[in-house]
Amino acid sequence: MLSRSVLLAQRTNAQVPTLRWRLRCLSSNSSNGASAGPSTTYYDSQSGQHVPIHDESKVTAYLRRNHNVQQEEEDTSSSSLLLSTIINEARTSLGAAGMIMLSPRPNEIEVDVLQQLIESSSAPLQNDKSASSIIDNKFTIFLKHNGNQLNFLDNVRPCQNVNICFEYTTHGNIKHNLAQTHIATNGRTSIAIVDPNYYNEEDPVLVASGIATLIDNTGGGAYVLLSPAHDGDDDVGVGDDEMVQLCEELSYLDVVGSTIKSRLVVAALSDDQVEECLGIGISKYIVDDELGLGRLRHVVEAQGKELILGI
User: Fold this and answer.
1) How far apart are CA 302 and CA 9, in angstroms?
2) Is the CB of residue 52 less than 8 Å from the CB of residue 258?
3) Dihedral through CA 75, CA 80, CA 81, CA 85, nearest 10?
4) Kindly report the CA angle at 224 between 142 and 295, in degrees rounded to 5?
5) Closest CA to 24 of 52, 55, 61, 63
6) Which residue, 154, 170, 274, 266, is CA-closest to 213?
7) pTM, rounded to two decimals
8) Which of 230, 220, 223 is nearest to 183 (CA)?
9) Which of 38, 84, 116, 216 could tie 125 with a disulfide, CB 3.0–4.6 Å?
10) What is the pLDDT of residues 207-249, one digit of tens each?
11) Alpha-carbon distance 209 to 215, whole Å?
């Protein structure tokens, strides 16, 4: 991994916008200064709002789903049941805080099932399970936005449980799309760094600066997902050092609202990489299955922190 001095030299030499820094003030619990206990928020002078304090000791996990539900014209019920079962397992069996769905094109079945899960509090899904018992306000589904689907946002209406996720790119019109969607979904938009080139080839200082500029200019970016694309193989094409370097550069950023560290949702590539990221202060991780969740728990507890599971 590059040394701290080398990284600082790179930052000095790179032509990047000057990052704005601000004073973060812990909020008081009442206007007269009386305290009823430890504060859970602080005052962000740039946004003029009280935002939650990032607790680095509490770690959460998100289940990544790498494949689409196959659309079958003859029998859509089986596909619908499959998706609802996956969501149910992630939430109630594994205790994940959410599910990452960054498949290239959410098909009509996925959109319909998600809408049913979100909007209906009584629609039967399997056995006596209802949508409200599977998805609650503590479970977040990150659903990839596809610019080619003109009716995407019409089909998946704004909901506190769904976060519309844009793939970060230095090409195209992501700024315009993210700004529009941020408004349409009441701020529930995220940015995903998916292309391995942004980890392996691009200067992490420049990538981090691009993310900061995008957040500042659009008001979006409730979360920033570091989830490199892969084909289901163990080797995702991104090394531990590359992932940690980008996480470190992102953690230095100062933007309006919550800290970047509290927004980062990072793929757990290896025990060593997770250990490094825990040291940075990142508390949200992406796993692919129950085995990955077990490995994450082992590293988290070895660092004296707690993996929070909703079970």
Assistant:
1) 33
2) yes
3) 150
4) 75
5) 52
6) 170
7) 0.78
8) 220
9) 84
10) 999 999 999 999 899 999 999 986 554 445 899 999 999 999 9
11) 10
Q: Divide the 311 residues of the chain into consecutive groups of 10 and give the mean pLDDT of each group.
A: 48 43 38 53 65 84 69 49 77 89 63 60 39 63 69 59 88 87 85 95 96 92 90 66 97 89 96 97 95 96 94 70
The pair of three-digit structure tokens given for residue 9, joined into one six-digit string? 């030299």
User: Which amino acid appears at position 88 of this protein?
Assistant: N
Q: What is the DSSP string of 165-205?
A: EEEP-SSSSHHHHHHHHHHHTTT-EEEEE--THHHHTS-HH
Q: Quote the tokens at residue 240.
A: 């531990």
Q: Is 281 exposed, middle or buried (0-12, 13-18, 19+ CB in 10 A)?
A: middle
Separation CA 178–CA 167 (nearest Å) = 10
Beta-bridged to residue 62, according to DSSP, are 98, 286
How many angstroms separate the CA atoms of 166 and 154, rounded? Answer: 16
Token reading at 27: 């909020």
* Single-letter code of the amino acid located at 19: L
Q: Which amino acid is at 210?
A: G
d(CA 186, CA 287): 28
Q: What is the CA radius of gyration of the chain?
A: 20
Q: Residue 124: beta bridge partners?
A: 130
